Amino acid sequence: MTEAVTFLPKKWEQVPRQKFEEVLSNNCLLVSAFQDSILQIKEYLSDTYLFLLTNVEGILLDLDFSQNIESIVNHSPIRAGMYFTEQSCGVNAISEAMKHEAPIYLPPEEHECLAFKDWHCFSVPLKIDNKTIGYLDVSTINSGMNRELVAITKLLPAQMLISYQEYVNEQESELFFQSLTERQLKVLQLISKGYTVKAIAIKLKIKECTVNHHKKIIFEKLGVQSSTEAVSIAARHSIL
After folding, report:
1. The HTH luxR-type domain covers which part of the protein (predicted)?
2. Nearest to residue 40, comparing CAs of 138, 156, 167?
3. pTM value?
4. Which CATH number does 17-174 carry?
């Protein structure tokens, strides 16, 4: 039987609905990566876990949990849109990870936030190219599961970041594709096949100056300075 857990927050600061919708929209890829990664590991977990995802400001974006604590969580004040900063709810694992920009383990007795007085929590900054994009917290009420908790908190962020990067690449590919006109795509395709400006002009029955103009616009849209870079980016994002 699951041990009862007291969820009595020091104080919870809630993000206004309109702002939270904006925050959620700005972090939709991170939330998707979180949901995908949790789904992959939940069936292998042997005990009670609570998963929290916040943005860089400590705003709770999403949460997931073991089925056996569904009632406990649903009757708690923990909801998406709440701040997990120290100022908002006292010292907690997420606030400590934010403060130190490093993985933090916080045992129950070190929480000021009463909602986690029974929880062993491990929080990790999620980083891409040394830039923090959010924080992941994995918590359990079973003190005997600390080793498994640490293992999960090492593996899950890695899986999340892989998934996140895949979503980012897909989005960039779509944006790149949408930003190029049909004519610009054709010019880029011919460049990738080794056509010269003169050959492209003949092939498309346009002037060489028009080809050069298309190249200039393509370079600007892709943020590159050469045909080689443009072709490389286009190939990487499956535009060609």
Report:
1. 173-238
2. 156
3. 0.73
4. 3.30.450.40
